[in-house]
Write a structure and sequence with these properties.
The complex is a heterodimer of chains A (about 180) and B (about 160). By secondary structure, chain A is mostly helical. Chain A is about 75% helix and about 0% strand. In chain A, about 35% of the residues are buried. Chain B is mainly alpha-helical. Chain B contains eight helices and no strands. The radius of gyration of chain B is 53 Å and the shape is rod-shaped. Chain B starts with 6 loop residues before the first helix and ends with a helix. Classes of the chains: A mainly alpha (about 180), B mainly alpha (about 160). At the A-B interface, helix 1, helix 2, helix 4, helix 5 and helix 6 of A face helix 3 and helix 4 of B.
Amino acid sequence: MRRFGPRVFQVARRFFHQSTAVEDAAQEIFLKAFSALDGFSGSGSLEGWLTRIATNTCLNLVRGAGRRPELATADLTQTETDWLDQSAAAHSGREHTVEDRLAASDLAGRLLESLSAEDRLVVMMIDGEEASIKEVAASTGWSESKVKVRAFRARKKMREAVEKLLSAGRSITERAGKGREKK
Amino acid sequence: MSEQHIIERLESGPLAQFNESELAQVAAHVSGCESCRQAYLVAQTAEELLRTRAADLVQPPPFFQTRVLAAWRERQAANEVWSFGRLWRTAGAVFSSMAATVAVLAALTFALPATSNTTNSPALAQSSAYSAEDVIFSPDESDSTVSDEQVVTTIMDADDELR
């Protein structure tokens, strides 16, 4: 458990935002793995086998829990709003503080929660962890063409959610600017 | 690419997979196209968010192992109770059928003689004349026909033979 704990937590974090939910999922993954240990043939790696169990367990847990409604600008914390503003202003060459990274990680987790379980997995692995189509297919048991289609749709949904937040942030900034001009 | 919009190309894959020449073409296009510039900004932001989350590694909390092992023991105990319950349910069918058989046999044993005793019909009385009690306790008819004289005669004959 000590050896594979970080790996299991990494998989669970693709699906869950709250740390308590990640811990609960990791616990469930280990319990499933203990129950199925007799079925491990030893032909592949133990880590690969555990990753597969982790992915399937998380997919089922998210499917059972359902997805959250879309994230609105009003739901964002001040640090998350600041991060988005800075992101919209200057993308390249920006220095990342620890607070910046935490805000971005938190915001990403909340945005992912509005997607389906499969979309979370695919977009996080391919766009976030830079995994290949083959790696995702091996991790999920899906065909490569299914992974490609899923990735395309998931990426589009993720970007739509980000675009909504950015455009809402822009309109708020414009309104604030006009207000200042009138005064 | 500078004449064509790049939105479709941006959606086809992660920006990390774009090579340098592709990125240069994208930069050249977005400098003169507002809609593509917005799409590029959104793609960059989305990917940066996801990459930051992926890089943000989380270690299991200190007592996670203890918690999992406790949950495992709890689940095993629950499974044992459940398997005992399943065994009991399976055996219950056998036990109940055995109990029903015993009850039927007991009813046949005790209820039927009671009904025969209560009936006073002569036919039944005759049929029960050769019951064990009758044979043991009633005087045998053949025994009653041997008279005392015959017994004395038999004893005398035996004495004569001995002499």
